[in-house]
Design brief:
Oligomer: single chain
Mean pLDDT: 97
Bound molecules: pyridoxal-5'-phosphate
Number of helices: 9
Distance between the termini: 18 Å
CATH architecture: Alpha-Beta Barrel
Length: about 210
């Protein structure tokens, strides 16, 4: 099956379930030559998890294709904040005050405004990035005057039912009056959509397995 057909199938499944989440095509690890049919088809939202890889892949195309929106869905080091602000229209992984500061400085230096999600560690997993549930409100209040925070993002623990985490995230966003929810991947995007995701992040189900 072609990647265009894969995306269309996913979009149809969402529509058939009355879900209107936008699909971020997660193109990490894939070469532009593999991705290009999707762009030619008119899909413009892509997700990457590494700044350097994304620069190499997208920087040039972005100068000629104004419709393209590349989202950063992976963790971000503060020393890469400037490169990230330059490249990505949206960053889903804001999870600490120092990163908020670095992004705000980068925006000022570049005279750019971007959109941001706070990444919430809904499973309170020790090794995982993201702010804990309890500290999310505090980080939001710290960040909201510095950056355009549009919503919350989560990656549920692999060994748990995603649904509970999607609902936790939705409730948190509601409390903070945030309208955007970035949640759901290849194995649970429909669940995420049904739980209110405004963006689902789908990689392998579109592009195939990553090597
Ligand atoms: C890789 C990745 C995805 C996509 O994963 P698939 O299972 O291939 O759909 C979604 N979100 C994040 C944060 C990722 O790193």
């Amino acid at each position: 099956m072609s990647i265009v057909q894969n995306l269309e199938n996913i979009k149809k499944e969402l529509i058939d379930n009355n879900v209107d989440s936008k699909v971020i095509a997660v193109s990490k690890t894939f070469e532009l030559s593999h991705i290009r049919p999707l762009i030619d088809h008119g899909h413009y939202i892509f997700g990457e998890n590494r700044v350097q890889e994304a620069q190499k892949k997208w920087q040039e195309l972005l100068t000629t294709n104004e419709n393209l929106n590349i989202h950063l869905i992976g963790g971000l080091q503060t020393n890469k904040a400037k490169d990230a602000v330059k490249l990505f229209s949206c960053i889903h992984s804001v999870d600490r005050e120092r990163l908020v500061d670095a992004l705000a400085v980068a925006e000022q230096n570049l005279n750019l405004k971007r959109d941001y999600f706070l990444q919430v560690n809904t499973g309170n997993e020790e090794q995982k990035s993201g702010i804990n549930i309890k500290q999310t409100e505090q980080l939001y209040h710290y960040a909201k005057d510095k950056l355009n925070i549009i919503g919350l993002m989560c990656i549920p623990p692999v060994d748990e039912d995603s649904k509970k985490h999607f609902e936790i995230l939705r409730e948190l966003a509601k409390q903070l009056n945030l309208s955007e929810l970035s949640m759901g991947m290849s194995h649970d995007y429909l669940q995420a959509g049904l739980a209110g995701a405004t963006y689902v992040r789908v990689g392998s189900k579109i592009f195939g397995l990553r090597s």
